[in-house]
Backbone:
């Protein structure tokens, strides 16, 4: 069981264009449900009005198995003017926690000349209120939809809300993900859209168990290119590429006539992903001497396999070249 931590951070007002929503609304002018790929996120987006009566519920799946990040979004409007009071409840069945987000119209000094009203959003975990944000009239008091976005990365939860733009309400520490969402209202509501998007965990092949098994394989290799290769230098356009670390890897022959590049050490960006013996890359022969096509797994676990990277070997010096990223890394054979 992952323990949930609830350390609260209140942000300054941060307004950002809700570009993903507006783009999808423009593309999906007719009500429909679609599988979606938005940036790094996969999942589904449904833009189809759903009416929910007071006392009823509407639920949808947002299973957080084998994901690194989640983004749950809803757009909800009251059926009657001034009747904004609804909940988005997110259930984490792994850690057995319930996250409840309430959006409510608040009236102050109802019978006075200085009568005021605003939209207040609160977030609670297992009944404990951890976040409260008074949006004033920055969120619609009318029957226009209010949009919520909940982002989770396994370490924290970020809550944003808005009409045409999103404003970050705040964030809390939260170690976990959600499995399904429930929407309910004190009054009748219309759900104008709902979506569940996620970034899956990358799968990095583990070829060898540890460094001992890697070295055992090296000891039986007679190919002159087999050995340990260490980072030497770089030529990187930093606007398009970022060095993931000063890598050290073993080169071992593979069944296709090429070579596997086996990670040993050196990861600096997201080093928790990398275990000794994991596949860092693969080079395959080409018709040109000492030139190979390069398959590479970057520091975040993403494959770079678009056919443009290549490797050149000149004796004890190897260059890994990424033309689209304007990056070149050189390695020297040390063992």
Residues:
């Amino acid at each position: 069981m992952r323990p949930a931590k609830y350390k609260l951070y209140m942000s300054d007002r941060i307004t950002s264009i809700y570009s993903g929503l507006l783009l999808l609304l423009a593309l999906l002018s007719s009500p429909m449900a679609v599988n979606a790929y938005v940036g790094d996120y996969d999942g589904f987006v449904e833009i189809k009005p759903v009416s929910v009566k007071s006392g009823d519920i509407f639920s949808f799946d947002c299973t957080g198995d084998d994901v690194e990040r989640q983004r749950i979004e809803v757009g909800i409007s009251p059926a009657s003017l001034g009747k904004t009071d609804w909940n988005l409840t997110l259930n984490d069945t792994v850690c057995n926690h319930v996250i409840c987000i309430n959006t409510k119209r608040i009236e102050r000094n109802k019978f006075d000349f200085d009568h005021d009203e605003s939209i207040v959003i609160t977030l609670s975990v297992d009944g404990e209120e951890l976040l409260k944000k008074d949006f004033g009239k920055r969120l619609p008091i009318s029957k226009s939809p209010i949009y919520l976005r909940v982002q989770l990365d396994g370490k924290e939860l970020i809550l944003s809300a808005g009409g045409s733009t999103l404003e970050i309400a705040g964030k809390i520490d939260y170690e976990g993900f959600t499995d399904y969402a429930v929407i309910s209202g004190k009054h009748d509501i219309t759900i104008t859209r709902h979506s569940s998007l996620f970034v899956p965990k990358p799968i990095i092949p583990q070829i060898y168990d540890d460094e001992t098994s890697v070295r055992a394989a090296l000891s039986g290799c007679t190919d002159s290119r087999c050995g340990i290769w260490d980072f030497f230098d770089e030529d990187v356009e930093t606007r398009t590429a970022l060095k993931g670390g000063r890598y050290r890897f073993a080169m071992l022959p593979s069944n296709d006539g090429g070579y596997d590049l086996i990670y040993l050490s050196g990861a600096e960006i997201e080093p928790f992903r990398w275990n000794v013996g994991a596949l860092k890359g693969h080079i395959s022969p080409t018709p040109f001497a000492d030139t190979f096509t390069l398959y590479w797994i970057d520091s975040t676990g993403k494959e770079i396999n678009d056919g443009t990277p290549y490797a050149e070997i000149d004796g004890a010096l190897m260059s890994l070249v990424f033309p689209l990223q304007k990056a070149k890394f050189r390695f020297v054979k040390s063992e």
Residues 85 and 104 are 4 Å apart (CA to CA). Residues 1-38 have pLDDT under 50 and may be disordered. The helical segments are 19-27, 211-219. The radius of gyration is 26 Å.
